[in-house]
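Sequence and structure are no longer studied apart. To make this concrete, we show below a single chain and its fold as tokens.
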Amino acid sequence: MAVCALLATANFSYAGSVSETEALGIARKHCVMCHTAKPTHQSFREAPKNIILETAADLKKYAGVIFAQTVQTKAMPLGNEIEMTDDERAIFGRWLRELP
């Protein structure tokens, strides 16, 4: 049973750090269509809740919100419209957890 539990969480616990570039790549792929100064998503004329996620500094500023909404609850991206994978969430979450 313990082995099954370990395997079920393997994607979220593997060793190694995630680069800032990799985290930004995930944000650019899944977040900035809405969370940018000029959203390209048809539903938004401005960033929801005025949260802009264009730079590493932006990601760090909103790290707690991003982690809760994207990694823990999977509420973002909204409706997972652009199909963020569990592996991408795990990588993004690891980067967020490793922030000083």
Residues 1-15 have pLDDT under 50 and may be disordered.
